[in-house]
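Minutes, project huddle
Topic: does the predicted pose make sense with molybdenum atom bound?
PN asked that the exact inputs be recorded in the minutes so nobody has to dig through chat later. Recorded below.
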Amino acid sequence: DPYADDPVRHPALKVNSQRPFNAEPPPELLTENYITPNPIFFTRNHLPVPNLDPDTYRLHVVGAPGGQSLSLSLNDLYKFPKHEITVTLQCAGNRRSEMSRVKEVKGLEWRTGAISTARWAGARLCDVLAQAGHQLCETESHVCFEGLDSDPTGTAYGASIPLARALDPEAEVLLAYEMNGQPLPRDHGFPVRVVVPGVVGARHVKWLGRVSVEPEESHSHWQRRDYKGFSPSVDWDTVDFDSAPSIQELPVQSAITEPQDGETVESGEVTVKGYAWSGGGRAVIRVDVSLDGGLTWQAAELYGEVQRPRKAWAWCLWKLQAPVPAGQKKLNIVCKAVDDSYNVQPDTVAPIWNLRGVLSNSWHRVHVHVTP
Ligand code: MTE
Ligand code: MO
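Predicted holo structure (tokens), as shared on screen:
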């Protein structure tokens, strides 16, 4: 059993798949803290978790022509300036279960919890690439990452990002060795993972073994044959994966974490809580909440760490306390966020349905009963 050596997990996690391990925190725990505690941070593994020895670990960085290839130990990585940032990581499949209610999709049934936030610390990728002689000349190039997890044929997890993002110090791409002040937990990439702020989770390669600059995107299945969006009319017989770009920056997203669907709330006043985030460093500027299915709206109170302009890598949490209209037996609660480019979420899921069930970001809706 290649999974026999997987780590022990927190019992509060809602497990979507045991082997490989995929799990999300329950909604009420997800927004209990701004920073997600490591043991309940959502986990998305495609393969068994490798058990790597920090003393013999080496990161191979392929040098530029005329530059120098590097074989970096953990101690070598610690010598680069340490950079620490708060970044929200979201899987492209977050909220897929709502999409599969419209029509079947291929993928894990994530609810609203395939998203979490941590303080990540490590070396900036641009500093490491500079040491290997890479400069921004070939802007069409890509930085390819390979994990040290592999399937029975020996194929490793891999992904890539454009070189321009990797070399941009303002993009703050990290080779992270710390998560919330601790060494990375095994499930989250011990000893080193990539953190690409504002970009889909699939590019944050864990158990990082190799970094190379290539003229093309990574040839990995997960870069080329997965994690792409398509029209609702494309099915598995007609899909042409080469026709769509790989997902990088994610669209604006929000969800309600309290109350939960089917719950009963007290009459008088209701408290609605949730999270909101957008990709590419775009800040969430407003979250609108409706108690009547979208007829009328109130702005929620946003809270959390203050984000820098164009570098809003982390989510905001939000809350609305509102009177329950007298005589109301049910509430149809809806939320939608707006980012600083005034991007909004689509109102329904059917028009954005896609066969892989990614990019599910329509208005989030929960139905609750009110005690008489
Ligand atoms: N890196 C490796 N090596 N193997 C993986 O299976 N999964 C990716 C990414 N990096 C993966 C990986 C996907 S799809 C996501 S969403 C994130 O890791 C999840 O990171 P987390 O498990 O720390 O939440
Ligand atoms: Mo993912």
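Observations noted during the meeting:
- Residues 125-131 form the longest helix (7 residues).
- Residues 44, 91-93, 201-202 surround molybdenum atom (ligand 2) (CB under 6 Å).
No decisions taken; revisit at the next huddle.
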